[in-house]
Amino acid sequence: xxxxRVRQQRARAAVAAHYYSAMPFDLAHYAFRAMVFVPFAGxxxxxxxxxxxxxxxxxxxxxxxxxxxxxxLFVSFAGVWLMGLGAWLGRADSRYxxxxxxxxLLITLIGAGLLVAGLGxxxxxxxxxxxxxxxxxxxPFRLAVRDLGxxxxxxxxxxxxxxxxxxxxxxxxVIAVGETTQSRAGYAxxxxxxxxxxxxxxxxxxxxxAADAGxxxxxxxxxxxxVPIAQSERxxxxxxxxxxxxxxxxxxxxxxYWDQAIGDEKLLRYLTGDQSTPYDEGTAVVITSADxxxxxxxxxxxxxxxxxxxxxxxxxxxxxxTADPHxxxxxxxxxxxxxxxxxxxxxxxxxxxxxxRVTVQEQxxxxxxxxxxLAETYVERGFEASTGWLPVVAAALLLALACALAxxxxxxxxxxxxxxxxxxxxxxxxxxxxxxxxxxGLSALCGTVLGAVAGCPxxxxxxxxxxxxxxxxEPVRVPFETPWPAIAAVVAGLPLLAALGALLAREQSHVPxxxxxxxxxx
Length: 522
Known about the structure:
The chain crosses the membrane at residues 30-56, 68-90, 96-119, 155-177, 389-410, 431-464, 484-505. Keywords: Membrane, Transmembrane, Transmembrane helix. This is FtsX-like permease family protein. It contains 16 helices and ten strands. It has helices spanning 2-21, 25-45, 47-55, 66-89, 98-118, 122-133, 139-150, 152-186, 210-223, 265-272, 334-339, 360-369, 389-408, 415-424, 430-466, 484-503, and strands spanning 196-200, 230-235, 242-245, 261-263, 284-288, 296-301, 311-321, 329-333, 344-351, 375-379. Helix 2 (25-45) packs across helix 5 (98-118) and helix 3 packs parallel to helix 5. It is elongated. Residues 1-25 and 507-522 have low confidence and may be disordered.
């Protein structure tokens, strides 16, 4: 009996998890996760800002020491090593305790922060070494490289912030896609596709009281008039053991009604998916996909607490074929169970999708009719991937774009470059806008490339402790999918957006035109 109750509790938890995944709570979940990551990964990563500011020389003629780059790369390698250690510790599919789980997660988060922090000296170093390579490029790009070198401190800070925001967005994307892959592999349907289930509102309740069942049924009939309602039943809590077993029939582990299904002809036809399935209130039905022959079912029951051993009864049975392993079970008509002395209580109220497919609007209206503590509705629509991470990633990438644009806007760093722009553009603002577009695009390119370098390994290694099993029923891991097309789109798209945003800006160079020479007297 304990196996039956454990399966019922797991089923209720699965219904609740699926139900709440479609609510606005999903966005709050990812926002909360981002806030939790900040203290452990964000604090070490903030060292990237300090490293970028300290390593950027205020004088463009002074070369930054390579010692900053070497030390930074050493810190990044140490971070990768810590992340690898956390992923290695979380690689097993055995269940982890809470302390071990948190330890693995913290190690990996701190490693991710160190990886980003070690990349801090790279933006000013890239600005320093890019100057000689830009001499043979078009004039706006060449001047943009020189200008970023002139304002190395400000540009390095903007690129570093863009790098951190991009790394966070890419890491969260990799994690979300990997967790979605794992959740899809472990998803177990609770009903036939399109079926409406109404279950008790309390999470661990597995039966409706008689009065509540009547209220819920009336609410369904008002919202869906004329639709037949199937009902699965269970012996009341005062009853003891009851189970049905068919010889030579082994039910699959993924079966929804693993013990047995008790109900009337509506439930039988819902289970088989065939409205023409014959029903006899004195005959059990073995619903299976196996090629077996069954002519009887053995019932084991204990009605009284004083029963020393289970009583056995054999009832006539027939076979009904199904192609869906989730619906395989032994169906026992309610009359047979009641004749044994059991009092039955409704377990689920079901609207068969073969008779009526409930829409989202109808489910919402039914929810409004039912009190949350009384009943909970669920429509089986298959696995639905979470989308709560998308707004968080979008906010991070917008922040990266804003940082790149901050480096692109503004007048030229010195008057000499402004004069060159004015001569190249014959006094128009178009040349200055192209100059700003090159500055913004180059800043975004440096930030997004470095962000991808940090975000990809961080996301792929964080997946292992994040998906480590903490309960017995969690599935074995499946190969994770890395969204390389999305990452490539971010790396290529953000610089283009930054350049386009600066190109369309109506900002002027703010460099006054040379004054006309004064006429000579006499």
